[in-house]
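Amino Acid Chain and Its Fold in Token Form
===========================================
Structure side: the spatial fold of the chain, written down as a series of whole-number tokens.
Position: the record begins directly beneath this header, with no further notes in between.
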Amino acid sequence: MKLTGNTIWLLLLLAFTFAACEQSYTPKPRGYFQINFPKREYRVFDVPGYPYTFEYPVYANIVKDSLFFGQKTENPYWINVEFPSMNGKIYMSYKEIGKNDKNNFQQLVNDAFKMTYKHTYKAEYIDEKTIHTPFNVSGEFYDVGGNAASAKQFYATDSTVHFLRGALYFDAAPNADSLAPVQQFLKEDMWHLVETLKWR
């Protein structure tokens, strides 16, 4: 039997088809962009009239927060520490501890606890770490695991006059896998902020 050119091409095509079917396909895992983090350097937030000072990264900006959910803030000492290159922001709210029911020390602690634990429906875990510095600052640092809207939060106080709460948010949908490296990086900056916090 003599093979023609068309028959040879047909046989080769069939051979390649059967050979291709024998290989198994393994899908590649979903990937995320590589993030190049800046070198850690800090500067001091020390604005006259503010009841606190602290160190914050040079790759962050301090912006005064004048509105809270569309309403005027409780006092002029609410600020945001913004990280433009990472689309992140630490919302920091300050309250003076008072004798009334609204701003008594225990109520402020309870409110901070409730605001953190309202994320439990999305959280896989919540780790608490006690804050205690030589500068008369105590409080709690919360590490919230899973797809919570705010994975890093803290409150810091002297328990008599000052109460400062911070919460890290991103301008992105909560995704623990993709945000994990940035959250871990900024967690160190939040700790540095807390450890250098001083009251005035």
About this structure: The longest helix spans residues 176-195.
